[in-house]
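Holo model, magnesium ion. Inputs:
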Amino acid sequence: MTVKFLKSVYKIEDLPPIEENRKEIVFVGRSNVGKSSLLNYLTNSSIAKVGKTPGRTRAINYFKWDFEKNKVYLVDLPGYGFARGDRKEIENWKRLMEDYFTTRRDNIALVLVLVDAKVGPTEQDFQMMEWLQYLGIPYAVVLTKTDKANQKDIGQTLKKLREFGVAEVVQTSSKDRKGKQQLLKVINQHLREES
Ligand SMILES: Nc1nc2c(ncn2[C@@H]2O[C@H](COP(=O)(O)OP(=O)(O)O)[C@@H](O)[C@H]2O)c(=O)[nH]1
Ligand SMILES: [Mg+2]
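Output:
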C-alpha cells in the first residue's frame, strides 16, 4: 500500500491526466466535516492536512493511492457551507466544482458524500447528491465523527437520508478508527463495477 500527494489544483486546466486503470474516489462535504481525517485514516497516513482554517482550502487536492491491486486517485475537494466566504469566492468554488465533475465524470468511480453523524445532512449535501444523480455519478454517504453522536442522533441522521432515498450509508469515526473495513468494501465494489 502506498499513498502520495500528487498536486493541488486551483484551475481546471491543471487536473492530472486521466490514466487508464486509475479511477477517482472523491471526498465531498462541508468544511470541517472530516474529509482530510477520513482520507488519512483510510490510507493509514497523515498525508492530508487536518483542521487547517476551515473553509480556506480552496484547492482540489489529488493523491495517488495504490492498495490491494487497485490504483486510484483520491480527490479531496474544497468544503462547502462556508458562511463567511465572500460572493466572489463562492462563485469561483461553484465554477470549479461544476468544471471538475463534468470534466472527470467518466473517470469517477465513487463520490463519498461526508455527513456529520450528529449534525445530519444539510441542504447543500442534498443539492450535491441531486446533482451527482443528475450527472449519473455514483455516490455513497459516509457518516463522520460517530464518536461524538449518540444512537438517537445517528438514528435521526439515517432517517433523513433514507427519506431522501439514500441506499448506501457507511458509519465511521476517524478518531476511534472505526468503519474502515466497511468503507473499503464499498470502494472495492464500485471499482469492480467500473472495470
Ligand atoms: N471527534 C472527532 N473529530 C474528528 C473526526 N474526524 C475529524 N475530526 C476533527 O474535525 C476537524 C476537521 O477535520 P478535517 O479532517 O480537517 O475536516 P475537513 O475540513 O472536512 O477536511 C478537526 O479538528 C478534526 O480533528 C472524528 O472522527 N471524530
Ligand atoms: Mg480538509
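Residues 87-104 form the longest helix (18 residues). The pocket of guanosine-5'-diphosphate (ligand 1) is lined by residues 29, 31-37, 50-51, 54, 79, 144-145, 147-148, 173-175 (CB under 6 Å).
Archived with the compound record.
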